Amino acid sequence: MLRKLNCLDIVIPCYNEQEVVEQLIKELEKILNSIGIDYKLIFVDDGSIDNTFNILSSIAVIQTNITIIKLSRNFGKEAAL
């Protein structure tokens, strides 16, 4: 028996992504909103040394479906996932 998906959680590891993270969010939202399900974006900042965490933090204040986890240093995408 197939069950309908009610909510989708997407985990996104990121490292020094300040140039693209806002566009990524916009594109994901466009696609996910067209599907019509609830979703949560979970960003794992893998020790970025640029402005990635600050950008994500300012967006997460406004958009409650975005969560950020900040790792103390770069552990690699496998560990971030």
What is the strand and helix layout of this fold?
Blueprint: E1 7-14, H1 21-35, E2 38-45, H2 52-62, E3 66-70, H3 77-80
Parallel strand pairs: 1-2, 2-3
Verbal overview:
There is one protein chain. With 81 residues, the protein is α/β, with parallel strands linked by helices. Helix content is 37%, strand content 26%. The protein is built from three helices and three strands; from the N terminus they run βαβαβα. The protein has helices spanning 21-35, 52-62, 77-80, and strands at residues 7-14, 38-45, 66-70. Strands 1-2-3 form a three-stranded parallel sheet, with helices on one face. Helix 2 links the parallel strand 2 and strand 3 (66-70). The longest helix is centred in the middle third of the chain and has 15 residues, at 21-35. The mean pLDDT is 91.
* Shape type: globular
Q: Sheet with the most strands?
A: 3 strands, parallel
Q: Over all CA atoms, what is the radius of gyration?
A: 14 Å
Annotation field: number of helices: 3
Q: If strands are numbered along the chain, what order do they take across the biggest sheet?
A: 1-2-3
Task: Provide the descriptors you would attach to this structure in a database record.
81 residues, alpha/beta, three-stranded parallel sheet, 3 strands, 26% strand
Write a brief caption for the model.
By secondary structure, the protein is of the alpha/beta class. The chain is built from 3 helices and 3 strands.
